[in-house]
Design a protein that fits this description.
By secondary structure, the protein is mainly α.
Length: 187
């Protein structure tokens, strides 16, 4: 899976800088929250200049979206077990829903970042959506019903927004996603 930042191709040294920035973003988020997060603060925590940080990330939204993208891309593929399509789909949805469950500051930040208008964050939102679709298609197997895929995507997106704004915990949302997916999936 391609983990390079969205703005440019990276050398090994540049990739290390991006890794430091994304790790530092998590540290700053845990202290300051998304409202208090700035690219300048992240750059300082990562030990790089602000201008260097802006070379890779156009905004705090872009930076947080990159953190989420890297987490999603690093998730192992759900196993294609013999347990059936519905079980595979539920496993994919649960795995993605729980991706930031233990980090409320990151979860809220991801929701804000992905709903924002920064063009680089928008690009990542599209990549994230495409990756989730790819995983759902893989779970559904050959000849998937695209109406079901779109319904599952709507369930997922709506569920994560609900969790991101605090209407329910990610564990509760994962359970609700499972129930909803089972209602949508044909037997």
């Amino acid at each position: 899976m391609n983990l390079e930042a969205t703005r440019r191709r990276l050398t090994e040294k540049q990739a290390d800088t991006v890794d430091r920035l994304t790790r530092a973003a998590l540290e700053v988020l845990s202290r300051a929250g998304f409202a208090g997060l700035t690219v300048r603060m992240v750059a300082s925590a990562a030990g790089v200049g602000t201008a260097t940080a802006y070379t890779y990330f156009s905004s705090k939204e872009h930076l947080v979206a990159e953190v989420f993208w890297r987490r999603l891309a690093a998730l192992p593929e759900s196993p294609r077990s013999e347990s059936g399509r519905t079980a595979r789909v539920v496993a994919v949805l649960r795995q993605i829903a729980m991706l930031v469950a233990d980090e409320p500051a990151l979860a809220g930040a991801v929701t804000s970042a992905l709903l924002g208008t920064d063009p680089d964050a928008t690009h990542l939102r599209l990549r994230i959506g495409a990756e989730i679709r790819r995983r759902l298609l893989l779970a559904l197997g050959p000849d998937p019903d695209l109406d079901i895929v779109e319904t599952l995507e709507l369930l997922y997106a709506g569920a994560l927004v609900r969790a991101g704004v605090g209407y329910a915990s990610y564990s509760e949302i994962a359970n609700r996603l499972e129930k909803s997916a089972r209602q949508v999936m044909p037997d």
